[in-house]
Amino acid sequence: MITLYDYELSGNCYKLRLLMSILGIDYKTVPVDFYPGREHKSDWFLRLNPLGQLPVIDDDGFVLRDAQAILVYLASKYDASGTWYPRDNPELLGQISQWLAFADGITSTSSAARLHDGMFYDFDIETVRAGAHRLFRILDEHLWFGEQEGRDWLCSADHPTIADIACFPYIMLSEEGGISRQDYPAIRRWCDRVKRIKGFVVMSGVFPAGPAKAA
Amino acid sequence: MLDQARTRWHPIAAAHDLPLRHVFHGQLLGREFAVWRADDGYVNVWENRCLHRGVRLSIGINDGRELKCQYHGWRYSNRTAGCTYIPAHPADAPARTITNRTFPAVERYGLVWSATDEPQGEVPEVAGLAEGEFLGLRGIPVNAPADRVVARLRGYSFQPSGRIDGNDAEIAVEAAGDFSVALRAREGGAETLAVFFVQPVDSNRSVIRGVLNSDAEGAARLAVLRHHNERLSKLRDAIEQEAAQAPAPEPIAPQFERLPAELAEMPELTAHGRKAALRVQVARKWQAADGIAGFELKPLSGLLPTFQPGAHIDVHMPNGEIRQYSIANGPGESDRYVIGVKLERDSKGGSVCMHESVREGDVLAISEPRNNFPLRRDAVKTIFVAGGIGVTPLLAMAQALHHQELAHEFHYFTQGESQLAFRDRLDGLKGTLVPHLGLDPEATGAKLREILSVYKFGMHLYLCGPGPMLETARKIAAEAGWPEGAVHFEYFKNTNKIDDSSSFEVALARSCMTLKVPAGKTILEVMREAGIDMPSSCEQGACGTCLATVIEGEPDHQDVYLNDAERKSGTKIMTCVSRAKSARLVLDL
Amino acid sequence: MQQSRCTDPVILNLWHPLAALVDMQPGVVFDTVLLEERVSYAHDGQGEAAAWRSFAGLPAGAAVEIDQLVETLPVKVAYGYLWTSLGTPGELFPIPEFAEADRRKLNAATLGVNVSAPRAIENFLDMGHFPYVHTDILGAEPHTEVKEYDVEISVERDEILATRCRFYQPKASTVSTEGADVDYVYRVPHPYCSVLYKSSPADESRLDVIAIFLQPIDQEHVRAHMMLCVLDDENEDKIIKRFQQTIFGQDKPILENQFPKRLPLDPRAETPIRADKSAIAYRRWLSQKGVTYGVIPAAT
């Protein structure tokens, strides 16, 4: 059984809860008091992850850290459909890696702004917000042209991949860092599509979408 | 400049920004909009603020017919923006006046146009742009004032669509205004007209919405879109750099309209009397079943008031009769009222008139919808039992529950298959419809006993049909353990023989008046003569409109609206038929 | 003495929370913002604490000896938090249950929210949103009804009291699988603080106490301190804290999407329903007190 070292308000932990829910994977959680307790810097947690960062999983003794890495692992091992991380498709794998790196960029800007505003982390708030807007502009353009080409997701496949899961949380939580998504209508539509993936679950700060129109 | 801009039409979204079941977050001149397209195609532009606690409706849910606020689940109807349901008080019908502020919406050139104040004139028609033959560019948000954006757009350079790989197009400014620039690019034999509308989002924010005069297909279309996206993005970066040099103007602070005074407190019963406030046209008349005519009533102009499932209207007929008909519409079908009229040969002629005289295109006077038969949506399961034409209010209710995916069963008793009315709507209920055809009274009783055999806490029962069937159903429900509060019913008419021989005194506590009610007159008539404006509708004790609260005295109930517990409590009275057993009644009026 | 940026005497003269003592390392300077002014604070781990207007010579993170400080602000340690005031404060409201020895007392978290303090208080008093915002935790459709409850403004204690509040909770306690009505009592003893009493799953005869203390950073930003004082012998601290953070995290996007951000006191600004009785009382109470900070006063 998979154990997720988890903090409810963490968007990075949520990525894994979301994918495991979509894939129907059973797991248990060990709560980590990230804030205000800073338990991710405690001795016992540093032994699991010397970087002192969430999330970490333990899959029957196999310990892995880093949200994006864990998404790759979970999809590779447990996705029977083979669509979330399509191992035999080099182009898609390349694109997925590209967007996983982009997701790290979203974490270091949008998530940082949220930590600053909500949990009083010491970041240069104007810089991280501007950084998030720069990424969101690029993403909105990518998604808008995707719609024009009949593509709904980040990568050129007719189904979502772990790239969509990796980018979604800190985009959806951006307003908590004072980053409005009003100027990114294509991102807002894509967020609705992600919320309508079968098996989607919410976290605190994310509301579900209503039902799509029945065909 | 921005002051005059308020009464002008501006684009606020691209048509493709409004896919079904999505809410677009728009803004114009500082005022935020929640913009959503209903499943019937109607584009709603609303103030982005729930009237209850100010939460943005753009984080709410577009369910195709209504917009649901994320905070307390208040539902607002397509078109009218009227509130149709307040989940915290499931037994009450919301006051009709709870209506969000709406703004005009017109679709042209692939854009949605609106205005923050009453717009003057029509949406601009642009010479050289034809509906159906244009290409809409990606909207480019710019952090700069609109006038600065317009000024820089005059120097925008691009290639005509037929020569996208060239680099030497000649650009001519064809027209320019405060919020638009039209440019023509020519190279070789190719030329393209590009019209850019600049949406003033706020004092320091704009969106460039470009439209080209010719469409293209496939890869060529994408190449043109990318060409402009790239050049407009560059232009944006330059404008933003320039704008950043100047101090940013203060954002425009939108003024929110005050609500009507009656909404400041929990609304009291409003006094409308028996008025025919609306004029509607019969847009369609058809045979909805054997002996039942369906009517689609559309407004002569503007919008119809918001209705809720269970609501009825008074129809004032050409022959002077007034009849009540329940609205059969599903949620969000707010461009018309659908009613069903059963032909009753032995009646005073209301239904005959509707069947035989009223034709498509005729204009009828109707009252605003009133809801004395509100639907709770907090039941763990709802059972509907309809008899004959009693199907209409229950059909509206069942469609609402079906749309919200709330558990229900719909039992519909008729003489035969051909008497099942509104087949298309019934089909939409899918698995929840259970027709019971051709049962005699005894078999009907047995079937009802079966349907009502299991009561669980949190279930609710809604009944509408002929009097004897309702009596039977209520009796069976009581025997099966259904508490009175869970049994809701509506009679077509009051078949009780009204005894108006008593005379007594009525004191109106809040109006400080005492009136004498003689034999032969109703409380309602006497109050009207004294100038008290009391709402009423059926005036025969069936619909519930003229309900009053009794403070003192013993009512002599002659209506069919109140349930037994309400009667026994002696705290409510239907003033159109009921009277007093005591010498004096004190009413809270 | 510096001029305070807040000119509302009611608010200036109140006690305001700054931080939970458990989150402060002893002998070290912390700083924050209160009513648009930078304020620094520290405690010595022995029960002594101090707060002062920040100055460059003693930045956050520096070591400090509390008894060496001059020109300090009034301070109070209460309910696990350090409180101060920029004016002349009176008594802080009582929470008698805090003295009960068998209760667990925790700071669930201190979280920043982009909203005025009164909007956050109103949300704390509200039950109607449970099925929509705290779905499957504090409420669930179709159980949406807010039943009649009582509200009074206690003149003697100068606080709002809402009693007989009940709301259907899908999983009423950790041991039950069935839903049931849960009882609540709400107090608003301070314009920016509220205390909630709720049926305790662990002890039928007593109530859990959950309080929200809002530190106004400015008119449209707060630090929300969530105090728990509950009966629970089983769960680790972090489990209890996680529950409350989950709930508050769900409220956050609602609060940050409310407009205007300051609470409008004009009765015709928003539409109340019967379920909002306590909110109506709260708005009237603020009006009567003459509070202007964090609200949009009604035109007179």
UniProtKB/TrEMBL annotation, chain A:
SUPFAM superfamilies, per database record: GST C-terminal domain-like, Thioredoxin-like
GST C-terminal domain: residues covered: 89-212
The keyword DNA repair is assigned to this record: no
Span of domain GST N-terminal: 1-82
Any Pfam family the entry gives: GST_N_3
CDD domains assigned: GST_C_7, GST_N_4
Keywords for the protein's UniProt record, in alphabetical order: Transferase
GO MF entries: transferase activity
Protein name: Glutathione S-transferase
Species name: Pseudaminobacter soli
Lineage: Bacteria, Pseudomonadati, Pseudomonadota, Alphaproteobacteria, Hyphomicrobiales
UniProtKB/TrEMBL annotation, chain B:
UniProt KW keywords: 2Fe-2S, Flavoprotein, FMN, Iron, Iron-sulfur, Metal-binding, Oxidoreductase
Alphabetical list of Pfam families matching this protein: DmmA-like_N, Fer2, Rieske
Cofactor requirement: FMN
PROSITE patterns for the chain: 2FE2S_FER_1, 2FE2S_FER_2, FAD_FR, RIESKE
A molecular-function term among this protein's GO annotations: 2 iron, 2 sulfur cluster binding
Gene3D superfamilies, sorted: 3.10.20.30, Nucleotide-binding domain of ferredoxin-NADP reductase (FNR) module (3.40.50.80), Rieske [2Fe-2S] iron-sulphur domain (2.102.10.10), Translation factors (2.40.30.10)
Limits of the FAD-binding FR-type domain: 275-376
Domain 2Fe-2S ferredoxin-type: 504-589
Matching InterPro entries: 2Fe-2S_ferredoxin-like_sf (IPR036010), 2Fe-2S_ferredoxin-type (IPR001041), 2Fe2S_fd_BS (IPR006058), Benzoxazolinone_Detox_Enz (IPR052353), Beta-grasp_dom_sf (IPR012675), DmmA-like_N (IPR054582), FAD-bd_FR_type (IPR017927), FNR_nucleotide-bd (IPR039261)
Residue ranges of domain Rieske in the record: 9-114
UniProt xrefs under SUPFAM superfamilies: 2Fe-2S ferredoxin-like, Ferredoxin reductase-like, C-terminal NADP-linked domain, ISP domain, Riboflavin synthase domain-like
The protein's name: Oxidoreductase
From TrEMBL, chain C:
The entry's keywords: Oxidoreductase
GO molecular function: oxidoreductase activity
Pfam entry (one): VanA_C
SUPFAM superfamilies: Bet v1-like
Keyword Transmembrane attributed: no
All residue ranges annotated as the Vanillate O-demethylase oxygenase-like C-terminal catalytic domain in the record: 114-288
Protein name, UniProt field: (2Fe-2S)-binding protein
Organism of this sequence: Pseudaminobacter soli (ex Li et al. 2025)
Lineage: Bacteria, Pseudomonadati, Pseudomonadota, Alphaproteobacteria, Hyphomicrobiales
